[in-house]
Amino acid sequence: MRSILFLPLDKPERIPKAIASGADKVIFDLEDGLAKDKKDIGRENFINFANSNFNDQQEKFLIRINGLDTEDYKEDLKMLKSISYLPYSVAIPKIESSVECKKFLSDLGRPILILPQIETPRGIADIDRWDFQGIDFSGIGFGSADYTAMTGGDMDVASLSYSRGKIVNAATLYNTIALDGVWLDFKDPEGCFEETKLIKSMGFKGKFAIHPDQIKPIHDAYKPTNEELITDIFSKNKVAKPYIFTIFKNFHLKGLDIFIMICVCKNADLKKEFNNKYKYK
Q1: Domain chopping of the chain, boundaries
Q2: What are 108-147's pLDDT values in tens digits?
Q3: Which residues pair with 89 in a beta bridge?
Q4: For residue 200, how many other CB atoms are within 10 A of its CB?
């Protein structure tokens, strides 16, 4: 789940464009993405789309509901209870404890993957101390914009490093994936690419997006490096695997490519995999 594209639900005609963007997942937004006077329209549009079984692409879609302490949450809950087909997952904003996750699951009365969004100082402080038994996660999301609005920090690397580290650590503890917040300037693909490379290096497995044009830079940043591809090949070659670090140390990348090609040629399956990844013939 490298990319999760937010889509406000007041304009369902945008759904095909969101799918065509190539995003791994599309998340319908009933919270920040919709003005108060458009939330009822958004719910109606979601019900109509859900009753089509999400055009037979149920696994493609999530929905972000409103916070559990809002009146809109009650309406969102009625909406979810009224439909036959639930989406892949439900994202819940401003979560601060596992108790809130379990409350939602109890209120809904149906099993579903949930994606808590951690967006407050208390949420960050407590995220790695949850009782997560009975909760099935699709991931743990970081709401960086709301978080920094509360702390008074900016959206720079230093301001976000502590909270990002907490999210990644918690996701690892709970056997799920960490998902980073949005890059706000959708007209700056290079900035989106560089930030995605950074959060990938920290352990995040995906990033939220607010515009279809952000999907390509996100995916580009998540393309495996030559070193990662080679490591993957070695992990399947038990004979060669013990020598990987020695080889990395002593061969330049081009020489390493050639050396591995020679190694894997003795195994037809690995040779085919190597050729597919590196286009050697």
Answers
A1: 3-222, 226-278
A2: 999 999 999 999 999 999 999 999 999 999 999 999 999 9
A3: 62, 113
A4: 18
